[in-house]
């Protein structure tokens, strides 16, 4: 697997509807268009490609970079359904974390409080639950959990 910067020419169909996502209607073109453009504008969006089949299997991004605090958030991760529950998410985060630790000391992850699958995935990669927070989405309030991973000494 490898990642590269996501571009306008990349397939938009790599994102599937998931009722556990904050916006389960994101697969609808009218809803997705705004999100996709926001991801491109962030300059932190990545496309995830299965090297053996040269096939797009998902996307993720870096966001909320704070140079002074030396922190960044990794999220908006979407994987093809056939990659759920396996090693793909762990492998992806193991690609993204060393890159982030070149510039930051802490990486944050925001996980919906109802998304047990993502909570378990965070724990598997070493994420520690820091605290809970609330945010206002377009149509509802969402409680989410903030996990963090601090830079290991081997990256100093």
From TrEMBL:
SUPFAM superfamilies hit by this protein: Acyl-CoA N-acyltransferases (Nat)
N-acetyltransferase domain mapped to chain residues: 23-127
Could you name the domain of life of the organism this protein comes from?
A: Bacteria
Q: Name one GO molecular function term.
A: acyltransferase activity, transferring groups other than amino-acyl groups
Which Pfam families has this protein been placed in?
Acetyltransf_3
Where is the chain membrane-spanning? Answer: none
Entry-linked InterPro entries: Acyl_CoA_acyltransferase, GNAT_dom
Signal peptide location: none
Q: What is this protein called?
A: N-acetyltransferase
Question: Origin organism of this chain?
Answer: Pseudomonas protegens
* Lineage, highest ranks first: Bacteria, Pseudomonadati, Pseudomonadota, Gammaproteobacteria, Pseudomonadales
């Amino acid at each position: 697997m490898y990642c590269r910067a996501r571009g306008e020419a990349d397939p938009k169909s790599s994102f599937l509807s998931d009722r556990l996502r904050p916006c389960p209607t994101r697969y609808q073109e009218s809803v997705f268009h705004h999100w996709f453009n926001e991801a491109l504008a962030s300059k932190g969006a990545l496309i995830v490609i299965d090297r053996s089949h040269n096939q797009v299997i998902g996307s993720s991004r870096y966001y909320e970079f704070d140079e002074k605090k030396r922190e960044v958030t990794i999220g908006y991760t979407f994987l093809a359904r056939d990659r759920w529950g396996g090693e793909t998410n762990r492998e992806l985060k193991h690609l993204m974390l060393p890159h982030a630790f070149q510039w930051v000391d802490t990486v944050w992850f925001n996980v919906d409080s109802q998304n047990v699958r993502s909570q378990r995935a965070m724990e598997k990669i070493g994420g520690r639950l820091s605290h809970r927070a609330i945010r206002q989405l377009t149509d509802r309030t969402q409680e989410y959990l903030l996990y963090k991973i601090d830079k290991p000494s081997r990256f100093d």
